[in-house]
Design a protein that fits this description.
Radius of gyration: 27 Å
Strand content: 15-25%
Helix content: 25-40%
Structural class: alpha+beta
Largest sheet: 7 strands, mixed
Number of helices: 21
Number of strands: 28
């Protein structure tokens, strides 16, 4: 496959097609308050739902008395876990396809829509109340009396694996629900035995909350046209997956459900699947034959929405005397919470390891990854999903190796890069990089950041405010596509409205995908942007994987491009019949078909009007050839106040190989926004549970620190488009998570550099995120 052809030279394509910084078409209605989020929608006769949640991290449910709640004003129904189990509601699908250490299939406790007999984390839903108003539902939920017998609990992986630790599931001995080994342990040991240098780090990628502006939201209602069906309106990244999971849990055909998604106020991975609360809402709407709405509040989001990261790693790297990496060895413990999700386990045991050796030519590995159950909320996808953790491991090892061996960190990277002539390159996890010129990208990054001028800036910081300036670098790649490489589209030329309408199963969630897809339509059809309509989020119109893993443009855009080309080809045949000419003699440009060498022509929409249903429709499916491998060099500068431990990010430069760029403004926004999230992990964010009580200590935005605009550094962000992806027709590479992956290690490496420059090089291996002022101050004080 080749990169997107630039064969449409129409004025519209030059103004609004690929490569142009078209302002986001979505923004006007969102900024003027005309967006349509799930909570903006209501249905006649709508009921509201509220949940009673477990106050204990681990307990046996002795009884649940709903009589008082059921008698309260406005209450339509009260549900318990026992009632839903009796009604045949199945558990949320859990982990599958992995093995436990004893070779048996991976397992964990069944996650019920409402807890029955046992609760396993604080915030797990125990009962649900449906009432006329939200306040009535909340009041009645407080009147539900649940009696518990408290059980021993554990919230961290190592204590959970210790002898005598409380078991969350009898099917997971030692609380290890799954394990994977990768590589050759004997070859790795031999490499370590003969190494000139060995670098060892203990690294904790802390637990994070995916704080979206819009919380989880769902409105389920009987279909007006067919009450056997239920229409689900919700905030999700994956409407088809939600539909199919809910149908399976309720024991109905997926055709009995229709999922509609309008505007989504952020997803970041945590809206990629069905939650227990969604299943209860769907069940209630079908049982009551009334619309039922639930909107999570912020506290519920912190308590019960899937968290991200939470991985403890012992990382070791063996190097030759010249700095060549001989072997990489890791033992990772992933805290997957009380109920292992398929995504949560796969992210840590397989997807992260796929990129663990990154852009370095390392062929000897010994990886052991374990998924551990604890009495905490489940973990799942969060921006980057395993790749940030893996790249952080690698880039911290690289900088510490440079510091311990005395080899310049840039030269150390240069000596170990995979070279362009090695492409396609197969890494030790069997993943094939189709393209990449990593040294070229680093050289551009060094120039953009003025790497050689750092010493003068460091001296200036010392003179002006007594602060120590640090310089950090991360060179890396990531894997995109979710290994869901097929996507389908429907392209319709509508005569009556005079628009080209395209439907895709990828989903908008604030990332600007509607604009990018519109630009691809303009590329092919050459019509004004006002005559293009992109429709997303309706499982009755089309189904697919959805938006995750930075795949929306990579797969969805490729499918749209090819579907549009097929539509033009089909329409050319129709035009040939109308104009009584051979299809080979028909040209298309600027929305018109014409016969070569004549003045005979017909407009695209006029042609559509001559069809029996006044439209030209093509359904098309495209499968790309493999994942894409975007990569980059991110360089960060910080100022550290040794007296207080305060860190300011004062400069940030990045060069990013993202292949062909459809909209450079959107790509920059994705890169910079992602970098701010990575900065948040490095310096601020952490979900914390009390190890003694299992209570969530960071249950609100008063306790959980997020980066704000004032903390965003002045970004210098550039894109290298000279190395298109070879596995898709557009040549694009996924970009949505790249900034997050590069920012965290570059910021932490900059702080480590500042510590070393301040005379504390011995403390750099002990840095653990988040690098809050108090944590750094304590480290500096010994």
């Amino acid at each position: 496959m080749s990169a997107l052809p630039q064969n449409n030279t129409s004025p519209e394509a030059k103004r609004f097609g690929s490569g142009q910084a078209v302002r986001r078409l979505e923004d006007e209605q969102l900024l003027t308050g005309r967006g349509r989020y799930t909570d903006d929608m209501s249905a006649p006769g709508q009921l509201h739902m509220a949940f009673l949640r477990s106050p204990y991290p681990h307990a046996r449910i002795v009884s649940v008395d709903t009589s008082a709640a059921a008698a309260m004003p406005g209450v339509a129904a009260v549900y318990t876990g026992a009632q839903l189990a009796a009604a045949g509601v199945q558990p949320v699908p859990g982990v599958a396809g992995f093995r436990r250490p004893d070779g048996q299939p991976a397992s964990g406790p069944p996650r019920l829509a409402l807890a029955h007999e046992r609760v396993r984390f604080v915030g797990e839903p125990v009962a649900a109340v449906v009432a006329q108003t939200l306040q009535q539902a909340r009041d009645a939920a407080e009147a539900v009396y649940a009696e518990y017998e408290e059980l021993p609990m554990v919230v961290a992986p190592q204590p959970a694996m210790a002898a005598g630790a409380p078991l969350l599931s009898e099917e997971a001995p030692g609380n290890v629900c799954a394990e994977m080994r990768h590589g050759d342990a004997k070859a790795a040991q031999a490499a370590f035995d003969g190494a000139a240098h060995v670098v060892r780090l203990q690294i904790h990628n802390q637990r994070l909350a995916a704080v979206t502006l819009e919380p989880r939201a769902i409105l389920a209602a009987p279909d007006d046209a067919d009450t056997r069906r239920t229409v689900i309106r919700m905030s999700t990244q994956m409407p088809t997956g939600v539909r199919d999971t809910l149908a399976g849990m309720l024991g109905i055909a997926n055709t009995d459900l229709r999922v509609l998604v309008s505007d989504v106020g952020g997803g970041f991975g945590m809206k990629t699947g069905l939650y227990p609360e969604d299943a209860v809402v769907g069940f209630a709407a079908r049982a009551l034959q009334r619309p039922v709405k639930w909107i999570a509040d912020r506290s519920e989001e912190f308590l019960a929405t899937t968290h991200g990261r939470d991985v403890e790693v012992n990382a070791e790297m063996a190097l030759a005397a010249d700095g060549r990496i001989l072997a990489l060895r890791l033992h990772s413990l992933a805290n997957v919470g009380a109920y292992p999700t398929g995504a949560g386990v796969a992210i840590q045991l397989l997807i992260g390891p796929w990129v663990q050796t990154s852009i370095y030519d390392i062929q000897v590995i010994d990886f052991r990854f374990q998924a551990v159950l604890t009495n905490t909320a489940p973990t799942g996808a969060y921006r980057g999903a395993g790749r940030p953790e893996a790249i952080f491991n690698m880039e911290r090892l690289m900088d510490e190796a440079a510091r311990q061996t005395g080899i310049d960190r840039v030269q150390l990277r240069r000596r170990n890069f995979v070279r362009p002539e090695q492409m396609p390159y197969t890494n030790p996890m069997g993943q094939v990089y189709d393209s990449g010129r990593f040294e070229r990208v680093m050289d551009q990054g060094l120039a953009l950041a003025d790497w050689d001028g750092f010493a003068a800036r460091a001296a200036q910081s010392q003179r002006h405010n007594g602060r120590v300036r640090g310089l950090g670098i991360a060179t890396f790649l990531e894997w995109t596509g979710g290994n869901a490489l097929q996507e389908s589209v429907t392209v319709s030329v509508l005569a009556e409205e005079g628009v080209v309408e395209v439907f895709s199963a990828v989903n908008a969630m604030g990332q600007g995908i509607t604009t990018s897809l519109t630009q691809l339509v303009v590329d092919v059809f050459g019509v004004p942007v006002e005559q293009v309509r992109v429709v997303l989020g309706d499982t009755d119109r089309g189904n697919g994987f959805g938006s995750a893993g930075s795949r929306s443009l990579f797969t969805g855009g490729s499918a749209l491009h090819e579907g549009a080309e097929k539509t033009i080809s089909h329409a050319r045949g129709l035009a040939a019949k109308e104009l009584e000419a051979s299809a080979d003699d028909i040209d298309y440009a600027l929305g018109r078909f014409s016969v070569k060498g004549t003045d005979l022509s017909i407009g695209l929409f006029e042609l559509a009007g001559k069809q029996s249903d006044q439209r030209i429709v093509i359904d098309s499916s495209t499968t790309v050839g493999g994942p894409s491998w975007p990569n980059g060099c991110h360089i960060c500068e910080v100022e550290l106040d040794p007296a207080t431990g305060e860190v300011d990010v004062v400069a940030y430069a990045s060069v990013n190989d993202v292949g062909t760029v459809v909209n450079p403004m959107i790509v920059r926004g994705q890169l910079d926004g992602g970098a701010v999230q990575g900065l948040g992990q490095a310096l601020l964010e952490q979900i914390a549970y009390d190890p003694e009580t299992g209570q969530l200590l960071t249950g609100s935005l008063m306790d959980y620190a997020l980066p704000v605009a004032l903390q965003a550094p002045p970004f210098k962000t550039e894109m290298d488009t000279t190395t298109p992806c070879l596995t898709n027709p557009l040549g694009v590479k996924g970009v949505g998570e790249l900034g997050t992956i590069g920012a965290t290690p570059s910021v932490v490496n900059a702080v480590a550099d500042a510590l070393a420059r301040a005379g504390h090089a011995d403390k750099t291996p002990h840095l653990q995120m988040p690098l809050t002022p108090s944590r750094l101050w304590q480290l500096l004080q010994g």
